[in-house]
């Protein structure tokens, strides 16, 4: 089902939204949160990004840079293996950088 999200932002840039698909980024981004991304924004140290692997797998992770500008990624939920900082695999790239997130506190969708 296609749903639409309204934004009050520049329309000359490329944006899209998706729903948080798991609990790997809890507590900051709970399962079901709406994540709004900007495709043309390069990530800064500590930004949250949608990553895409060569096999078309998508991951939402925090991206961190070391002193040599090497990218590392991590999830926020300590129950996941990727909670530890790991080097970004060579077959993964930043698809988009998080601009905004929205969390619904309703127990059902209307």
How would you describe this protein?
The protein is mainly β and 110 residues long. It is built from no helices and 7 strands. It has strands at 15-19, 34-38, 48-53, 58-65, 71-74, 86-87, 92-102. The protein has a 7-stranded antiparallel beta sheet, with no helix packed on it. Strand 3 (48-53) and strand 4 form a beta hairpin.
C-alpha geometry:
globular
* Low-confidence sequence ranges: none
Order of helices and strands: EEEEEEE
Q: Terminal Cα separation, in Å?
A: 13 Å
**Strand-residue proportion:** 35-45%
The total beta strand count reads: 7
The largest pleated sheet is described as: 7 strands, antiparallel
Radius of gyration: 14 Å
Number of helices: 0
* Helical fraction: under 10%
The averaged pLDDT comes out at: 86
Topology:
Elements: E1 15-19, E2 34-38, E3 48-53, E4 58-65, E5 71-74, E6 86-87, E7 92-102
Antiparallel strand pairs: 1-2, 2-7, 3-4, 3-7, 4-5, 5-6
Write a brief structural summary.
With 110 residues, the chain is mainly β. It is built from no helices and seven strands.
List keywords for this structure.
110 residues; mainly beta; 7 strands
